[in-house]
UniProtKB/TrEMBL annotation:
Belongs to the MHC class II family. Residues 34-123 form the Ig-like domain. GO terms for cellular component: MHC class II protein complex. This is DRA protein. It comes from Oceanodroma tethys. It is a single-pass type I membrane protein. It is found in: Membrane.
Length: 176
């Protein structure tokens, strides 16, 4: 190993590096802020375990922080994240999963921090569960069903009686 030769090689490498830096376009790559969507894995039923998915897409560079909030408080229980998936346009996408049991009144937020965003991006999610039918609605539906049934029986009986009368009148004409 020759120290003098190594020093000469280092000087040549340094000069080549400086030349390449001058020739290259040293502009910084464009920072692309993320887009995000939050959705549940399965249709939401109160009390049934489910998974919330935070899908973060079309961002560059791949340094990003994804956190979950439940009712405004940070939660990490059971949270899983995927690796960074590259896209054809050289940006990235990533998924974050939060297992949860839907409860009326709970709400969730997925918070994303990225250098392309001036402040953290927050996407809100609440379970969209239809309200149960009230007792008065159930009573009304039952009463309407009963009324339609009674009307059907009355109309059916009237039609049967008319048919029997027409049949007996036809039979009497036939005898004359």
């Amino acid at each position: 190993f020759e120290a003098q030769g190594a020093l000469q090689n280092m000087a040549v490498d340094k000069q080549n590096l400086e030349i390449m830096m001058k020739r290259s376009n040293r502009s910084q790559a464009t920072i692309v802020p993320p887009e995000m969507t939050v959705f549940s894995e399965d249709p939401v039923e109160l009390g049934d375990p489910n998974v919330l998915i935070c899908y973060v897409d079309k961002f560059w560079p791949s340094m990003i922080n994804i956190t979950w909030l439940r009712n405004g408080q940070m939660t990490t229980d059971g949270v899983l994240e995927t690796i960074f998936y590259p896209r054809d346009d050289n940006s990235f996408r990533k998924f974050s999963y939060l297992p949860f049991i839907p409860t009326r009144g709970d709400y969730y937020d997925c918070r994303v921090e990225h250098e392309g965003l001036p402040t953290a991006l927050l996407t809100h999610w609440e379970p969209q569960v239809p309200l149960p039918a009230s007792e008065s609605t159930e009573t009304l539906v039952c009463a309407l069903g009963l009324a339609v049934g009674i009307i059907g029986i009355v109309v059916g009986t009237i039609l049967i009686i008319k048919a029997m009368k027409m049949n007996s009148a036809r039979n009497q004409r036939g005898l004359l």
